[in-house]
Structure formats: structure tokens, C-alpha cells
Design brief:
By secondary structure, the protein is mainly alpha-helical. The chain has a single domain, classed as Up-down Bundle (Amino acid/polyamine transporter I). The chain is about 70% helix and about 0% strand. The protein has a two-stranded antiparallel ribbon with strand order 1-2. Strands 3-4 form a two-stranded parallel sheet. Helix 3 packs across helix 18 and helix 3 crosses helix 19. The longest helix has about 40 residues. The N terminus is likely disordered. This is Divalent metal cation transporter. Keywords: Membrane, Transmembrane, Transmembrane helix. It comes from Kribbella albertanoniae.
Amino acid sequence: MADSTTTDHGKFALPTKNLPAPQVRDLPEPPTKTWKVIGPGMVGAGVGLASGEFILWPYISSQVGLVFLWGALVGVGIQWFLNMEIERYTLATGETALTGFNRFGKHWGLFFAIMTYFANMWPGWATSSATMLTYLFGGGDAAWIAIGILLAIGLILTFAPVVYVMLERLIFVKILAVALLVVLALIFAIRAKTYSALGDAATHPEFPVEQLGFALMMGAIAYAGAGGGQNLVQSNWIRDKGFGQGLHVPRLTSPITGEPTADPTANGYVFPPDDVNMARWKRWWKFANIEQGMTFVAITVATIVFTSMLAHATLFGDDTVKNNISFLKIEGVTLQTLVGGWFGYLFWAIGAFSLFAAAAGIVDYTSRLTADMIKARYLRTSKITESKLYFGLVWGLVAFGIIVLLSGLTQPLVLLVISACTAGTMMFVYSGLLWYMNSRALPKAIRITPVRTAVLAFAFLAFGFLAVFTIIDQLKKL
């Protein structure tokens, strides 16, 4: 029986003081053809192929070479563990991580939703895409182009019948485009000196804080892959894909073109930890780990290494490279000189499309996280659906981004550093909360293991340390 604070279905112990008790349902049978449910890790990697991969890490490589690439590997590795702890809770309960946090503290979800919204209000990704379009077409007002991009994103997300399906297809096209750029660059642009520098970086890594500063380095580590709220939204994406208990939860659909769906009658679902369900859990957990490793980790690491090598091959040692997005124009012009005019234009075109797709994903996950939190915690009994909340938040982000651009704040790197610092602070907090939640709410057989606990402890300390020093670094510049 459930008391006022906890409910115990088998060995689950989800607090019920702030939210209703979950329902009991068997864990769904994992699909026999697992390739059909590959996608959330790919979407996470594709959305993450944005500021870090096309701006922050290439800029770092243009300034200090490849000696700090180890920071990207550390960042992606930590995020794989974070993503899996976020997915662990959702696989077992069908609830998002934010809903789980709300069970332990009634306003934790609101805190992270506000932080995510604040981090992504600044349209650095849309502005970056617009700036690369001006390089591609030889001019234009980047601010007005960025406004057009924001409006296009709002319309695309509004009219997609099932939002996740549309996003997955968009990201798949983006990954194919980036893969084409990788193959062509390896053939035509990257030279022996860069491969040699990569080898030196592997044997003699450095921590170039004097050249780069803590804010930029924290941003690069925090955004090596995903970062901030994007890690948390893995809950929502695997739920929409039908992973584990998420199969019982309706997906986000367009209120205009999508099929009507009822909101969940309960916040989540727990399964009896009998032999059948535990066997299914082991298969789901194994698949989820492999899916993240083969998509999120592999795609992200390969892209960071490649874009950094390309920046090294074209920009390292060039004194004209400055701390703003204009270095991408210099990089494209250099590629035109090394390979041919067509390659520079291809570089700008794929970069612009990649950043556009990332901006769409960022607007999606920011609104998705916030809508889920508001509906699950504050509007459970309201007739306002999560889909309607989602689309209102989408257009709120679009409108605020337009206001920011019209106000004249259009420098992408400044906007991205603001976002990255906020993301790092969020990761510091939820690293600790994930450990607390997954070591208490779930049955012992599926709780977080000591090795994963150690990684989360490292993430907690590392992001906390970096957050403090970044704030100090920024205060010194005021």
C-alpha cells in the first residue's frame, strides 16, 4: 500500500507526496528488430552537432591546435553516462527525468525548465546558420535571415503531424550531409601536418586555459555533444520512440495536422520485478546502451575530431583569425584556395543547414522539456494538452529570439558562451540529482551501479568546479 510519501510496487519506491502514484504495467517486450528503434541517440548527436562541433571546437583548434581534443572525449564520455542514467529512469517508469526530480522536490522540474529556456532564448544557432548563409551567397543581413530561420522553425514544428518523427528525419539528412563533407575533406583538404598534429595531441595533451579562458573551455566541454537540457530531453525522445515503459505514453502531435491523443491518465508506470519483466529489462537496458554508443558517442566524437582537423588544416597559425564566427568565412575561403571554389561553398552550405537543423532541435527540446514539466506537475487535471503547451512555448522562443535579434545582439559566439555557461551549471546540479533518484526510486536490481555512480560523482565535481571558475572569470571582465 502507498503512504503519503512513497509507493512500493515490488521494490519500486517512487515518492507520491508531490505527484500521484504510478500505475502497474508489465514492461513491453523489446522489438526483435532493434534497428527499428534506433533514433534517439542519433537525434541527440544530430542536434548536438551545432555550436560545439562547427564553432567552439574548430575555433579552439585554430588557436591552440589539437592539443585540447581530449576535453571533447571527456565531455562526450561523461554525457554518455549522464544520458544513460536519464534513460534508466524513463525506461523503467515511462516518466521523464524532470518528472522524477519533481517527485523528490516539487519544483526541481521548474528549475531545470527555466534554466533550459534561459540557456536557449539566445538565438546563437539561428544566427550562426544565417551568418554562414551570408558567406554562401556573398552578403545579406544576418539578423533578418536569422529571423526568417526562426519563423521557418516555428512553422515546421507546428505543422509536423508527429514532431519526433519529423525531427528524426531532419537530423538523418543532416548527418548524411556532414558525412559527405567528411569524406570529401579527408580526400581533398586535410594534409599530413594535421594527421601529425593529431598524433602529437594524443601523446602530449594540454590544458590551454591561458590562451582560451575558462568560459570558452567550459563551453566546449559542456557542449561536446549535447549539454544542459539536451541531455535531459533524452527522456522525452526515447519515450516518443517507444522505449520501455515509454511505449504506454502518447507522443507529441501537432494540434493542427496530427492525430488527437489523450494525455496520460497517470504520470508513469512501474513493472512487477518478476523473472519475465527482469529479462525484458536486461534486453532494453543493453539495447539502450548500445544505441547511445553507436549513435550519440560515435557520431559526436567523429564529427568533433573531423571539424577540428579541418580547422587545423586551414586556420592554425593564421593571425587574422579572431574570436568570432568570422573565422568560418576565412576557413571557407582557405578551402576554396586549397581545393577549389566549389568546396568552400559546400562547406558553408552544409554548415548552414547543420546549424539550422540544430536550431530546430534546440527549439523542440526546450519546449518539449518545459511542456512536459508544466503538464505533469502543475496542469495534470487541466484540459490544456501537453501538445498545446508545447506549441505555445515553441512560438514563445521564436518571438523572444526575434526580439533579441532586433535589439542588435547578433554576435553568435557571445550568445553561445552564455548558453554554454548555463548548460554547465545545469549539468552540475542534475548529475547529483540523477544519482540520488536512481539509487532510491528503482528496484535494487536495476539501480545505478558503483562504476556509474563514480562517473556521476566526477561529473558533479567537474561541472561544479568549472561553473564556479567560469562565473569568476566572467565577473572579472565586467
